[in-house]
User: Fold this.
Amino acid sequence: MDIQNIRNFSIVAHIDHGKSTLADRMLELTGTITSRQAKDQILDSMDIERERGITIKASAVTMEYEHEGQPYMLNLIDTPGHVDFGYEVSRALAACEGALLVVDATQGIQAQTLANAYLATEAGAEILGVINKVDLPAAQADLVAEEIEHVLGIRKNECFHISAKSGLGVKDLLDAVCMLLPPPVDRSDEPARALIFDSQYDDYRGVICYVRVFSGTLKTRQRVRLMGNGFTYQVTELGKFRPDMRPVDELGTGEVGYVIANIRDLANVRIGDTITDDVHPAPDALRGYKPPMQMVFSDFYPGNNTEYPRLRAAFDKLSLNDASFTFVPQNSQALGFGFRCGFLGLLHMEIIQERLERENDIDVVQTAPTVSYEILLRDGTVKRIDAPSELPDRTMVEEIREPFVKLEIITTNDTIGGIMKLAEGRRCKLLKTDYLSPTRVMMVYKAPLAEIVYDFYDLIKGVSHGYATMDYEFTGFEVGDLVKIDILVNGMPVEALSLIVHRSNAEPRGRKLITKLRKAIPRQQFEIPLQVAIGGKIIARETIKAYRKDVTAKLYGGDVTRKMKLLKKQKEGKKRMKNIGAVEIPQEAFMSVLDTSD
Assistant:
């Protein structure tokens, strides 16, 4: 295939604006799949993606298309739309020269539309504006085109009007991809260099690397080297996604496909690494990816029917397929050995937990998610902590810095008041207000991440009747008046339940928390005190009452001292039980730490 006739492009958009549906139509129009194979969301291979109706993993596919009598190779990468998977989008764009920015004609520009447009611009991709769902009764295509011109600078008369569901205008869009998007730079005479933009593990074939070839050619049986660690392997299979895996003899410059080279050790492959020829290696590696910054941290411990080694193996496989997730071993007095895991956001954490349970059939106990903090110690050193339990003694701490983000909320005019009230209650500071159209407004806030990461998105959806969307970007750490809340269960501090909160909110938050814990922790044969402490000072207490057995039921009158003797014996038994009894804390108790509602 002539390199001038290759096009590598991504589809980027906000959630539910029609990325995967557009990919389905393109696959059908180019004859990559037959009508018998066709099904909705064909590129979403995981069950969890189909059930939730969202894309989680970027997926690649190669299509053959004829334009003006010329054969073209179109390499499409479908990307996720949720804020938590922005790293997947940035990785996909690094393998492309162009991007289709899809906007819903009924909803207009949303928060993630902007975020993805900026990612595409940063990656140097040529952007084509696409307005989808123009056949719906509520579509306002012309108004949305004006919004795109005003906010993104793409001329309104250059936007493509399509319906991904019916196929209206999709053929014109494919022609535009061939005419308007640039081909890859011809570096076919240079040493082979291919960027690993994703990977997955197969029990029979080892690690499967998804690659984009930037220079030279990769061939089967070729000896290749991973430039990051220097390991060498022999290529056993090369192929393309159509959309299932089809082997080919070679991958040339500008092509996208997969490489299998009997790589058995998961730790040897790193996403963003460069594959080169072992005999004639490239002088330098391709610019990889900026490591993702984890924003949310949570501890995962083996559940009832799971051993620690099985959980470790499951994490190894998952981290290969998802480079934005990290884990380190962790030990807790209450829960034993487990892992401290880092995620890009709460949905990302939820997906990882679900994938662990589905793909590996294991149970996990998960603690409440927290964000990371920066600690300035009195000796001048700065330390980053990912859990409240890692906070040093207060006498050694000069200041605690919390993470702040730039928060963009796009909403309708009539819901501005409710959203402003909600944001102010979460210590958010309004920076600017920008009108996208006469009826829609974008509000930009400076916000503490800890206040918005859990339920803030759900609440703004409620306040705005489902119309508002939000996106956030980390800006840095700033000093705050923060304190650590400790929770004592039966006199023992449970580190997994501790929290770092703003001093003004510490006491009401602590009281709310133990009230919820009292309902979540089951009653025992002995009384369980629940206490909230700040710096060793108890500020609140609740008690879980013991089960009472009527030990005097068998008595039928007689001397009162017999009753007293039995009650005293029961009291001593309960006291002894309290000293040695262990309180099992259920999963709901850990999650109640997050719930800020009354």
Q: What stands out?
A: The CA atoms of residues 559 and 565 lie 11 Å apart. The chain has 14 helices and 31 strands. The two ends are 64 Å apart (CA to CA).
